[in-house]
Specification:
The chain has a nine-stranded mixed β-sheet with strand order 2-1-3-4-11-10-9-6-7, sandwiched between helices. The chain has a two-stranded antiparallel sheet with strand order 5-8. It has about 220 residues and is of the alpha/beta class. The protein has one domain: Rossmann fold (3-Layer(aba) Sandwich), CATH 3.40.50.
């Protein structure tokens, strides 16, 4: 099992993902520069947090046309596990792998705090080690994490069980308290909170470790 962590100009959580995967769980990782064109030898893909291309135009708008992401889209279509964290979630919506959009927080302020969440795993393979309705806490760190979708789209997502993480106390105004979404097949997960920052007790908790551990079986 090898995780490929896609690195863009402005990524700043790529090393956090490597530390969590390798240092805490022993899962090998490989950094993949966004201009590469192959995922050979990669078993799972993570789009990490940060500010790809300085968030110019809008978050993820430039990153989503990077050459490697066409390979990521094909990998996801074949059922390969893909995780988008924070800016990675924004990129997944720009790619069309997940619906909706992430916009400025309701208060127009950057938020950096622990967020209480409720897990609804459904078919999401990344969350299979969590129980239905389980409360967890993961840190958030974003200025544009307010999930937006029209009423019909949100109703369809909820009806299909694709709203897999909800804020227990909505910090940013996200429609439907959405903190994370899965695709219908369950292999693609996008979430605004940072599980990689909750994998060691010394950093404040381990509620994120089971998410990455799902890759181990």
């Amino acid at each position: 099992m090898t995780i490929g962590v896609v690195v863009f100009p402005g990524s700043n959580c790529d090393r956090d993902v490597r530390w969590a995967a390798e240092g805490c769980l022993g899962i090998p990782t490989r950094f993949l520069w966004h201009e590469e064109r192959s995922l050979e030898g990669i078993d799972a893909v993570v789009l990490p947090g940060g500010f790809s291309y300085g968030d110019y135009l809008r978050c993820g708008a430039i990153a989503h046309v990077s050459p490697l992401l066409s390979e990521v889209a094909a990998f996801a279509a074949r059922g390969g596990p893909v995780l988008g964290i924070c800016n990675g979630f924004q990129i997944l919506t720009e790619m069309g792998l997940l619906p909706g959009a992430l916009t400025r927080n309701r208060q127009l302020h950057f938020l950096c705090e622990a967020a209480p969440l409720t897990v609804h795993p459904g078919a999401c393979q990344w969350l299979r080690h969590y129980g239905e309705g389980e409360p967890i806490s993961l840190p958030i760190a974003h200025g544009e994490g307010c999930f937006q979708a029209d009423a019909d789209t949100l109703a369809a997502l909820e009806g299909e069980g694709q709203v897999v993480l909800r804020y227990a106390a909505n910090p940013n105004g996200s429609a439907g308290d959405v903190a994370g979404l899965s695709n219908a097949q369950g292999n693609v997960l996008g979430l605004m909170p940072h599980p990689e920052r909750a994998c060691d007790p010394i950093t404040g908790g381990t509620d994120g470790s089971r998410l990455l551990a799902s890759l181990l079986g």
